[in-house]
Every structure is written in structure tokens, then in C-alpha cells.
Amino acid sequence: MSDATPTPTSPHAAFVAGLPKAEIHVHHVGSASPRIVSELAARHPGTVPADLDALRDFYTFRDFGHFIEVYLAVVDLLREPEDIRLLTYEVATEMAAQNIRYAEMTLTPWTSVQAGVPIEAYVEAVEDGRVAAERDHGIRLRWVYDIPGESGLPSAVDTLGFALDHAPETLIGFGLGGPEVGVDRPQFKDVFDQARAAGLHSVPHAGETTGPQTVWDAIHVLGAERIGHGTSSVQDPELLAYLVEHGIPLEVCPTSNIATRAVDVLENHPLKQMYDAGVTVTINSDDPPMFGTTLNREYEIAADLLGLDEQGIADLAKNTVHASFLPAQEQAALAAEIDAYTAGTGPLAG
Length: 350
Ligand SMILES: [Zn+2]
Known about the structure:
There is one protein chain. With 350 residues, the protein is an alpha/beta fold. The protein has a domain of 235 residues: TIM Barrel, CATH 3.20.20.140. It has a 5-stranded parallel β-sheet with strand order 1-2-3-4-5. Strands 6-7-8-9 form a 4-stranded parallel β-sheet. Helix 2 crosses helix 3 and helix 8 packs parallel to helix 9. The longest helix has 19 residues. It is globular, with a radius of gyration of 19 Å. It starts with 12 loop residues before the first helix and ends in a 5-residue tail after the last helix. The N terminus is likely disordered. The structure holds zinc ion. The site of zinc ion has 6 residues, from strand 1. Zinc ion (ZN) binds next to strand 1.
């Protein structure tokens, strides 16, 4: 996100920028840009610089440890419901500017409740931000509550309680994030069972920093309907075949995988293997400003890795729409919007 970082150019940059898109793997706090953090820091002077240039410096991605440092600094600035409302509204505003029409955004309410914001106030704040962003920018947001895996089962039980007792109608999914090593998926079975029984979709992270067994666990034990990352699925042909057969999409976030070292360099990203195997791949940005990227940039990267033309990029965007939990009619409408855009910008367009 620094001015010092050269932005690689893509022949598809303009097409991607105008393309109507959906995003289904993106974290609320992780989407705080330097501009937004500057506003928050001005509200709470002290720990984080409010000066935008200093913040851009702070945001220049160095390594995973630095990402955690930036993430925690932002968490520390979310002290009052108004901070959470502001973050929600501004993140949605920046997404809308990228022509993202619909997002299933991951919230981690447990962290804010730990920081002293009551769950009722938290829900009201994110909902206020969501409604205002939809009114002002036409972007629709739906929520996924995720368990911060590093905080273990107690945080999972609390998060389930938030989902069962304090869910807005816009809560559609239940997730599990944080580190995978040392955080076995099966321990969360009961919590996921109850969340699913309450009608929430199961969308855990799995196979990002551990092997394919974690993805199997997510599917068989947690009832995963989509897999967050699933990067290591390519190590197991049987798993790839299962994902294809059962129509389980992968939420792929290429730059994030490099940043966390789940993959060493972009050239070695397994996106093409997933794609060639026939798995439904969707392109997402995870924690975009903290990893120095945007959803548009992730599409450019994916187009490059897969060798896609504009129609191929549009098809990829439609994958995400169809992998989302939007009602069928709304999926069809957004897919039609993508088709109309593609027809209007394609080589045959006058
Ligand atoms: Zn994630």
C-alpha cells in the first residue's frame, strides 16, 4: 500500500476495475485501509500515527509478523461502537469503489466483545454501517461470524452464543479463522453443528497452512460448504475430485497466500492446478490493505496465473456469484450484470 511499491501493470486492469464483482472471503478489521485507520487514530490519539504518510509507511507489508502487528494496532483502535460503524461504512465504501456489488464479510465479534464493546452495540454498529453503505453506494453486505481459532474453544462457544442470541438477519455464515497448526478442526464440531442447525452456512478456513487432512476435516466434521483458502487441496487428487463432485468452492486469496508464506512465490501458486482439476475457484482478497493488495489486483493476478482473457475473467467473477449465498434470483441478476458489462467492453462492442 506504499507509494514506494511499484504497482505491476496488467493488460486487464481497466476491464477488471469496471467489472461488477462479488467477494466472499474478506475480513472486516483486515480491510481497514491507511485512510480509515487515519480517521480512527485521530479519534484515539496515541498508539497509531494519524498522519497518512506515516501510516502508509506503517502499512508497507514486510512479513507475516508485521501483518499481525498492523492488525492488532487496528483492533486496538476499535474501542467504541462508533469506531466499528465507521470502519464498516468506510470499508464498504472502498469496496464499492472497486465495483464490488456484494460481499460476504467475516466479522470476529469475539475480539470486540473482549475489548469491552457489548455484543448488542457491536451488532448495531456493523448494521448501521452496512445499511448506510447500501443506501449511499448500492453495495450489499452479508455477515459471517468467525471463531478466532487461536483463542480456542471458549471463544468458539462465545461466538456461537453471539450467533444464536444476537444475530442480525444479515448473518448468513459461520467461520473459523486464525492459525491452523495446533488448532484441530474437530474440536469445533459441536459448535458448528449448532450453528448449522440454526441455519448458518459453514465456511471455515482450512488447508491454508496445513495439509489436505484439514480440508477433509472441515468438510466431514464441520460440514464446510466452501473452504477458506484450501491451498493444500492440490496435494490430494482424491480431495480435488471430491471438491469437484460435491461442488465445494475454494475461496482463493493469492497475495494473502504469499504474505503468510502458505505459498512461496506467486508463480508457484496452485490456483491453476485447482482450476484445471475443475474445482470451482473464487478470487478474494482476505485482508487486502494489510497485504498490500485489492480485490481488483487479485483478479489481475488470477488472470495472469490462469492465462485468462476478458471472458475468462468474467466467468471467474460469476463463479464467486454462484458460490455465494445470495438467493438464486439475485445471483442471476448479478451474473447478468457481469455479462452485460463484458458484452459492452468486449472486442465485438462498437
Ligand atoms: Zn481469511
